[in-house]
Here is the input.
Amino acid sequence: MNATSLPSAHEDEAVPLGHGAGGRTTGELLDTHVLPVLGGRPGALEDAALLPDHPDLVISTDGFVVSPLFFPGGDIGSLAVYGTVNDLAMRGARPIALAVALIIEEGFAHAELRAVTRSLRAAALDVGVPVVTGDTKVVGHGAVDKVFITTTGVGQRHLALRPSASLARPGDAVLLSGPIGLHGTAILSTREELTCHGVASDSRPLHRLVDALAPIGRSIHSLRDPTRGGLTTALNEIARDSEVVVEIDAGSVPVPEAVVSACDLLGMDPLTVAGAGCLVAFVAPADEADALTALRSLPEGRDAVRIGEVHTRGTAGRVVLRTPAGIRRVIDMPLGEQLPRIY
Here is the structure.
């Protein structure tokens, strides 16, 4: 065997669960095995993409493999709709069509399947987006875990909005529309049969918040919903792609007491626990007040707050956390989500 035929260092390795859970390990999987093969271009990896030759149309595809299927505050059906709608919204688009594919395990109870599909339909009606096409497959027992859902959403961009993970600018205010960590904590408490009083997933659509921000227009530089990897991952992605420093005031980040307690018990960092119903917005400083007013005008944004700002001091691509004591420390991209299979 000559040198050119030797297998690469990764050829005989298998994909671990953590490589699909967000953070640095997912990035390594994409950069090494997926994007080079599919011809992906360097640059920002967005929640949704502009359609070639149709720059006002946005498309996003997502897969949902949640365990358990039903949890406080939601289920896999509603999460699939809201998660897809939110990915479109983070590019400044309102949803106009949805495709849904179901991969069903042999032996899955009809009653549970009806519960999932009814919830999915109710969520689509809530958003006002039609399910226009889809597919259904049944596979052998053990080939999937009960039911997996894949969605594709198409959205129409607001003419005034052009947010991107690469457009954050020095001076921007960093706004958060609500508390963090609720979805991941709800999933964990159900999965592990823990008692976490008052914890329910915040799974909900965010497109109405983006509608409210639309009049502010191009001053909305970046939008991201902190899902897998939590707020830490969302901020690090924007800091990296915009080549800026993001500084966050730890005391300003809203973390429910129940989330704090659960994370203390389990040794997790609330900043890396996923949410499913809040967004982070990078806004030009002149329009910060108007953006907060717009977010707070809706129930899903009533707790919106300013949590930090963007500057150029330090190493570009870094996220810095400022503690109540005035100490600054870098918060890196997590290796992966601490709670696998929450989306």
Summary: The radius of gyration is 20 Å. The longest strand covers residues 93-105. Residues 1-9 have pLDDT under 50 and may be disordered.
